Amino acid sequence: MYTRPLATLRQSTAVWRRTKSTATTPSSGGTSTSATTTSTSGTHANNSVPIGKTALAALCAISFVSASAAVVETTSAASAPTYHPQAQRFDQTSFVGRFSKMLLACDPRLLFYTEAQVKRSQEMIQNYKDFQGTVHNRALWEARRIVDAALHPDTGEFIPRPFRMSGYVPYNGPICVSMVASTSTPALLFWSWANQSQNALVNYYNRNASSDMTNETLAISYAAAVGSALLVAFGLATTIQKRFEPARAKAMLRWVAFPSAVIASSLNCYIVRSPEIESGIPLLDADGNDILPGATSSIAAAQGVYATTLSRAILQAPVYFVPPLLLTAVPPIRRYLQRNPRMTVPITTGLVLTSFGLGLPLTVAIFPQMATLDAQDVESQFQHLRDPLTARPYEQFFYNKGL
Hints:
There is one protein chain. This protein is mostly helical. The protein is built from 16 helices and 2 strands. A two-stranded antiparallel ribbon has the order 1-2. Helix 8 packs antiparallel against helix 15 and helix 9 runs antiparallel to helix 10. The longest helix is centred in the C-terminal third of the chain and has 32 residues. About 7% of the residues have low confidence.
C-alpha cells in the first residue's frame, strides 16, 4: 500500500542529499587538504537518512492516529445506544458512522491488550445481561471493540498482531522507514517484499473466512499477489528509466507512480481474496443467523471482494496527494524545510503515516462491512426461502464482506 508514498520519501531523500552535498561544496579553489577532508567526511555523514528522527516522526504519527480514535470514543460515549450483540455503536447506514467505527477499530492502542484481557472482554459481552446495570454502558462497548479488534468475526480465532487492522500502521511503519533507508537494490527489494507480504497477509486475515481455503490455494494466491504487485510497482519504473533520458524519466515517474500503486494494491487484495468467489460465503439474516447452513453464495462473495479491492485502490489517493500538498502548499512547512533540509525525510514519513492512518478507516468506511443483497439478486436456491418467524419470503440478505 505504500508504493507511492515510498517513492515520495525516496525522492525527498534524494533532494535532501543533493541539498546537503551542494551546501558542503567549497565555493573557491585552493582548499587545504584538511578542509577537503572535512568537507568530504561531512558530506558522507550527512548523506545518511536521519533514522532516529524518522522513527520519532513515525511514532508521532501513530500517536496522532491513536489520539484521534480516543477523541471519537470519548465524545461518543454518552450517546452510545444500550449495548446489544446485534446493535452497533455507530449508525452503519451513514458514512460518518462507518468511519467512526473503523477509526476505533484501527486504533493502535488495541494492540496492547493481552489474550487474557481479550478473553475476559469476550466473556463480558457474552454475558452482557449480567453486567448491565453493574458497569457503565461504555465499558460493554469497549469490551466489544477489544474483541472485534483481536478475533476474526467468522472463526473466532486470534488474528496475529501485525495483521490486525489496528496493527497496520504500527507494523508497516518500520518497514516503510527501512525501505527509505535502503541504499542498495537487494535491500530495497527485500523490504519491498516484506511490505507486499504484510499487505497480502492483512488481506488474508481480514477476509470472510467462513469458507475454507486449501494450503495450496493460499500459497498460490500469496505468490501471485506479491509477485504481481512487485512486478507492477518496480517493472514499469525500471522500463521507463531504461528507455528515456534521466530528466524525462524522472518527470514521467511522477505520473506513473500513482496508477502503479493503485494497480499493485488492487492486485494484491484481489488475488488473495479471489478464492472466496469460487467457494462462496454464507448469507445471513438481520440477526446474523446463517440462512441456509452449508450453502454459500458466490454472488455475495464477488461483491465483497470487488468492494474491498476498490477501497484498497482508493486508499492510494490520500497517501499520494496529501503529503506532497502539505509539503509544498503550506508556507510554514515549506520554509522550515528550506532552513532544515535534514528534516525532509522525517516530516515526509510522519505525514505519510498520518495520511495512511486516517485514510485507511476513511476508505474502508466507503462500503459497509455487513453488506446487503436483495433476494432477487442472489442464487436461485436462496430466492424463495422464508423467514421462520414471519413465514414471509426474505426480501434482503446480509453478508460479511471482510475488511
